[in-house]
Amino acid sequence: MLYAMLAYHVETEVTSWSPEEDAALMSELLAVHERLNAKKVLGPAARLGGTAEARTLRGPGAGMVIDGPFAETKEQLLGLYVLNCADEEEAIAIARDLRRVNPSAVYEIRPIRLYLPGEALPETTSEPGQG
């Protein structure tokens, strides 16, 4: 069974770290990643850019792009995409294309600061409790 693990943190704390503090943490995290890769349990990992760089597409029709990661409390994160786009406009265009077929979805678009591909993992179609 595949699981998505989402990392939450206080953004102002993370951005207050010196380059040395950040590098030390990343070194420790990469050691964990290496252990997980050796066990073949780690897929892609990404460090997102700041929330000030985030955009959210919501609303009827083509939707409206607004600054920031604005989820309504009634909404839950149910999936994610990792895209390789030339710029933010291309990412927004892709979000609009996805939304054409899933009009009730809201898409947050945020740059990835660090992407670690990890090992290829098997596809899963199992629902929780069935795999």
From TrEMBL:
Annotated ranges, domain YCII-related: 1-113
SUPFAM superfamilies in UniProt: Dimeric alpha+beta barrel
Domain of life: Bacteria
One Pfam family, short name: YCII
Family: Belongs to the YciI family.
Descriptive protein name: YciI family protein
